[in-house]
Amino acid sequence: MLNLLRKNNIAAGVLAIIRIYIGYQFIHAGFAKITGGGFDASGFLKGAIASSTGEHPAVQGWWAAFLQNIALPNADLFSTLVQWGELLVGIALILGLLTNFATLMGLVMNFSFLFSGTVSTNGQMILLAFFVLVAGANAGKFGLDRYAMPYVRKYFTVKGNHRRGTTVA
User: pTM here?
Assistant: First the structure.
C-alpha cells in the first residue's frame, strides 16, 4: 500500500485531486478572512477557553492553558498567522509547491482548530492530509514540486568535509 501511494502514477493523480481539494478549502477560508476585513481570532480563542470548563469540556485543560496564556495575549499575531497561513497553505497545495511542508502546516492548523473544540471539516481534512503526507513526493508529482524539489534538495544537501570510510566520534 505504501509503495502504491509513493510510486504509482494513478495514485499521484488521485493525490493531486485530494491536494487541490484541501488547498481550495484553505484558500477559501483564508481569503474570506483577509478580504472580509478585520478578522480577529480573540473571540474564537475566548470561546475555546470557555469550552474547557463544565461537566463535559470540549477543550482539554492543557490546550486551554496555552490559549489563555500564549494565544489570547497575542491574538493579533495569531489572527495574522491564521488568515495568511490558510491562504498560503492553500496556494501551495493547489500549485503542488512544497507539498509536504504545506500539508504539515495545514495539519498543524487543523489540529489546532480541532483541539479548540471546532469539528467542522477539520477531521476530514486531517484524514485526507495524512494520505498526502504519507505519499511524500508522489503527492506533488503533478505540480510544481516536480521542478522545485531538485533545487530544494540541492540547496539543503549537506556536503561533509569528512573522508570516505571514517567515522566521527
Answer: 0.87
